[in-house]
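W.,

You were right to be curious about this one. When I first looked at the sequence I had no strong expectations either way, so I just let the prediction run and decided to look at it fresh. Below is the sequence, 423 residues in total, followed by the output.
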Amino acid sequence: MNKRVVITGMGVVAPNGVGIKAFKNAIKRGDSGIEFQQELADLKFSCCIAGAPKISEEKQLEYLTPLQLRGFNSSGILYGCIAGMDAWKDAGFSIAADSNLDFDSGTIFGTGTSGVEKFREAIYKLDELQVKRLGSTVVVQTMASGISAFLGGILGLGNQVTTNSSACSTGTEAILMGYERIKNGHAKRMLVGSCSDAGPYLWGGFDAMRVMTYKYNDAPEQGSRPMSATASGFVPGAGSGALVLESLESALERKAHIYAEVLGGHVNSGGQRQGGTMTAPNSQAVQECIRRAVQNANISAMDIDVINGHLTATSKDPVEIENWINALGRSKADFPYINSLKSMIGHCLAAAGSIESVATVLQIRDQFVFPNINCEDVHEAISSKISEEKIVRQLLKTNINIAAKASFGFGDVNACIIFKRYN
């Protein structure tokens, strides 16, 4: 069947901006959303900085009812509901509790660990023999599919309603899963994206692994340094990104605004072989993922104008650049422009791929490349392979037709997607 798939709506909850307008302005200016977190310092974390969206109680009530918010303590689901509902409205659809069930619309909305704070709260009540006081919402707030259950009910979605989970590649994978469903004629539209909780009970394990930076507690905005020689580990983040994917036929019939087209992509795993481990990528598999994404999108590697990389500000950044070079057969001045949103918002874990995809699509629609901040000192292993002009450090206005977005996750899993300007 192979229907063409376009993006007709987007929403975002990011550390440096909530809502598409605020977020777009922030990434164009290079605004950091990373701040010192006193709670992390009090808990004796080595890394005491993070990117966490700010959502007031008044803002919460614009999206969820007082009844839904009673006993609510799941930041990831909150972020996902806001981003998802914004994307749905942005696509031109209304939200009403009495709306008809829509069998043509569904959602694939991913997460890593859902409702960590709510789960901790429940454990304490159990330990104190207060099982009857857990409340009726503890299950939906802590089950993995809580976010898709919330969105499915709020929007009345009657097609596939699913939560996927593949570590840092979750959001990019969700987009590709929704794309495949529409392309194959199983749905007219899919709300896709991902979300991730904020807080020490999610970030603590990474601090224990010593993969987060501890050198910039006194200068939070300088802490996330992808591709930099002074990068010393990632900065944790949280939030959500959401996109409404729709068949081109349906979008044109509705006269919907179209942000960009999804050309295709690929998902694979390195199997923790050939140098790949639970935390390190198998370079052969990463390159294969990129190559197949290009092939499935029916483009040439030379067609790619900009790459939004995974690039977490760890020792693996030069390895990722090497993988892009080998997969695309492009280096030095021939390499596409490349950037990492993590320089501004940190690593939002399961939400990373979806938030970064929103940023990538905004670049295509509005024809700009957002800057990599904190990259004044490009790592020598990177600058020796690609021209430093391709590592954008000031807002760049340029023609963008095709962009690649990739995510590489814990467990040696990979996802790469290709977006195209819609003409």
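Here's what jumped out at me. The longest helix spans residues 75-90. And, maybe more interesting for your project: The CA atoms of residues 344 and 362 lie 16 Å apart.

Coffee later to discuss?

I.
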